[in-house]
Specification:
Elements (H helix, E strand, L loop, with lengths): L11 H5 L10 E3 L20 E2 L2 H10 L7 E5 L5 E8 L5 E8 L11 E7 L3 H13 L4 E5 L9 H21 L7 E4 L3 H8 L5 E5 L7 H14 L11 E6 L7 H8 L4 E3 L8 H15 L4
Parallel strand pairs: 1-3, 6-7, 6-10, 7-8, 9-10, 9-11
Antiparallel strand pairs: 2-5, 3-4, 4-5
C-alpha cells in the first residue's frame, strides 16, 4: 500500500484522501468518534487512536496487508469521514484520524432516502442485489417473502441476514459511501408495508406493465409536493421505497395490498429486466432524477 507521505504537508490532504494518481485508500466504518475532532484542512492529529473491529482488522491484516504509516479513511457513527494513518498494524489494527474530509472528498452522502424493497429470491441473486444496490446509493434494503419467493427457512435466516449485512458493509466501503445501508427481512408483504408506512413518503412498485415511466412519476410527485408545500419535518429527509417483485412477479392480491396503501406503479423502460437487475437500476434512475447522485 502507498505510504501517506506525512513528511510532505503540502500534499498530505490529497494523499490521505486516496486521490494521488488514483492511489488506493481503504475505507473502514468504526464504532467510535475521535476524542477530539480533527479540524478540516488541518494536519494536526487528534488525541486518540481508533481501533478497527474484528472483521476489518482481519481484512486489513490478511487481505490488504496494511503496515504502520499506511493511509486509510474512517467513517464514524455520526457520518463524519476522516483521513487517517495506520498507527498500529496489530490485532486490533489502530488508526489515527488526521484530517476531516468534507464535500466530494468525503464520499457519497445523499439528501434523500431511496430504499429497495425486494421480494426474496435465490441467495446468489440477493447477494447481487444488495452489493449493486449499495454501490448505486440504496439507503436500505427490506427483503419480503412474496408468494413467488423461495422459502427462507427460519434456521438459516439469521446466517443469511448476517451475510447480507456484511455484503452491504463491504460494498459501502468499496463505493465510498458515508453510511452503511440497513438490511432486514420482513415477516410478510403486509408487515413490510406497516414498517415503512411512517418513514417513507412515497411507495413505488416497479412493474413492466405500468402505464408511466419512473422518471415521469417522480417528476409529477415532486411537482405536487412543491405546490402543496410538502417539505419534510426538520431533521427528516424525503424517503422513497422502490418495490421489486420476485422472478414470476407479484400476485394480484399482493399488488392490490400495496396499491391500496397508496403506492404508485411505474416502469423502468422498454426492456423487461430481471428481478435482480430492476432494483439497482431503479435506485440509480431515482437518484439521477432527484439530482442526488
Amino acid at each position: 500500500m502507498r505510504d501517506c507521505g506525512r513528511t510532505d504537508p503540502a500534499g498530505l490532504d490529497d494523499r490521505l484522501a486516496g486521490r494521488e494518481h488514483g492511489g488506493f485508500c481503504p475505507r473502514f466504518f468504526v464504532d467510535n468518534e475521535p476524542s477530539r475532532s480533527a479540524v478540516s484542512g488541518s494536519t494536526a492529529p487528534s488525541v486518540a487512536e481508533i481501533a478497527l473491529g474484528a472483521e476489518d482488522t482481519q481484512h486489513a491484516l490478511k487481505v490488504l496487508r496494511v503496515r504502520k504509516g499506511d493511509c486509510c479513511q474512517v467513517v464514524t457513527p455520526s457520518g463524519r469521514v476522516y483521513a487517517a494513518v495506520v498507527s498500529a498494524a496489530t490485532d486490533p489494527v489502530r488508526v489515527e484520524p488526521t484530517v476531516l474530509l468534507e464535500g466530494a472528498t468525503a464520499g457519497a452522502a445523499y439528501r434523500t432516502k431511496v430504499g429497495l424493497v425486494q421480494a426474496l429470491a435465490r441467495p446468489s441473486l440477493m447477494d447481487y442485489v444488495i452489493e449493486k444496490g449499495t454501490e448505486v446509493g440504496a439507503s436500505f434494503f427490506l427483503l419480503v417473502p412474496a408468494s413467488g419467493s423461495p422459502r427462507l427457512r427460519e434456521e438459516v435466516k439469521a446466517d443469511r441476514l448476517k451475510r447480507w449485512r456484511r455484503i452491504a458493509r463491504e460494498a459501502a466501503k468499496q463505493s465510498r459511501q458515508t453510511a452503511v445501508p440497513w438490511v432486514d427481512v420482513a415477516e410478510s408483504v403486509t408487515s413490510g408495508l406497516d414498517g415503512l408506512s411512517q418513514s417513507c413518503s412515497m411507495t413505488l412498485i416497479l412493474e413492466p406493465g405500468a402505464p408511466e415511466y419512473l422518471p415521469h412519476v417522480l417528476r409529477a410527485a415532486l411537482a405536487r409536493s412543491k405546490r402543496s408545500g410538502g417539505e419534510p419535518a426538520p431533521g427528516q429527509r424525503l424517503c422513497f421505497s422502490l418495490w421489486v417483485g420476485p422472478e414470476g412477479g407479484w400476485t394480484d392480491a399482493e399488488l392490490h395490498s400495496v396499491l391500496a396503501r397508496g403506492a404508485v406503479m411505474a416502469r423502468l423502460g422498454r426492456a423487461i429486466l430481471r428481478a435482480e437487475t430492476a432494483g439497482p437500476v431503479g435506485v440509480a434512475v431515482t437518484r439521477l432524477e432527484l439530482d442526488d447522485w
